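Hi support team,

I submitted a single chain yesterday and got back a structure, but I'm not sure I'm reading the token output correctly. Could someone confirm the output below corresponds to the sequence I sent? I've pasted both exactly as they appear in my results page.

Thanks,
R.
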Amino acid sequence: MLSVIGSILRLLGMILLILLGIILVILLLVLFMPIVYRAEGEKQDKLLASARVRWLFGLLRVEFIYPDPGSLVVKVLCFKVFDSGAESSRDQTDDSGSAHGGTDDIKSRDIDKRTDAENAAAAGTEADTGKSEASDTPEVMAISGDPAKKENTFASPQNEDDWIDQEAVRAHEAAWQEVERKLRGEKAGSKFDKFKYTFRNTCDKIKEVWKNITYYKNILSENETRLLLDHVMLRIGKILKSVRPRKLSADLLFGTGSPDTTGYILGVYGMLSPFIGGSVVLTPDFESAILKGTFLVAGHITIARILWQGLLLVLDRKLWHFIDRIKHKDDPPRKQRRKRRRKPKKNTSGSNGSSQANEETQSGNK
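Hi R., thanks for writing in. Yes, this is the structure output for that exact sequence:
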């Protein structure tokens, strides 16, 4: 029985070790396998360009081609995960189908409008006939003939609740007018107070803004902050160095149409040529506006290098001290907060010295 349990545990342990090994291998591949990118193009009458990205021995591939017809394709192994060209063709078919369907909708709407117009005309004729019949009744004719009856019919209320006390309405309106007069007087008297309040509020805001500006200016002018900025620039420079293209070549004929701007661009190229190298060649054309030639950019990116530089920056204590000071600008510094938390110690050295002095005086008296 124990041997069976031991063999089962051995098997489970081997399976766990295999799984951990697979996870470790995948993690190392993700961190240290470079992402290879390559972009090339040509410009004569039209621009033709293509870009490709490969990762994990080509298991993940991204391709972009312009302008044929400007499609972006993402593949995992041999399967297409995303294809912008296929989606654009689907959209075109949907638009054409909606256009055919739109004509049918317009026709049906025209038919509905015609039927609605015919129904409205029939209803109007029926209403006119009904009105003429109602006007011919004897009651209406009697009322329309006698003006006194008209006044009585429209002046007499149908319910007792329709009677309104005119004196109460006038008293109510007079009370509201008195309230409005008082409010106008208070508003007129409080204009100067409002001006004083707004002036003080703006002055306080200006003081607060100036205080914040001086606080941040003092922080940025400190030696510790300068060292932090140097460290940040160093790490960013190393990240950009690891990402930069390993291969860069171009042969371009360019011109802006004006000799002065073309000369300026050529001067910038002359200043950057020691850093770019001889693989980039620019030929100026001082007479016409033109841009022709070919270019090639290739390189790779390693995730582990970027994460390592970011980790070194995060582990810097000066960065966290700077963030703490920015967040708690109204609080005292961290050292002062620690001193406040500590309890003051009792001074026993003075009592010991006084006791020793008393003993010496007593021995001298003896």
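A quick pointer for reading it: The two ends are 92 Å apart (CA to CA). Let us know if anything else looks off.

Best,
Support desk
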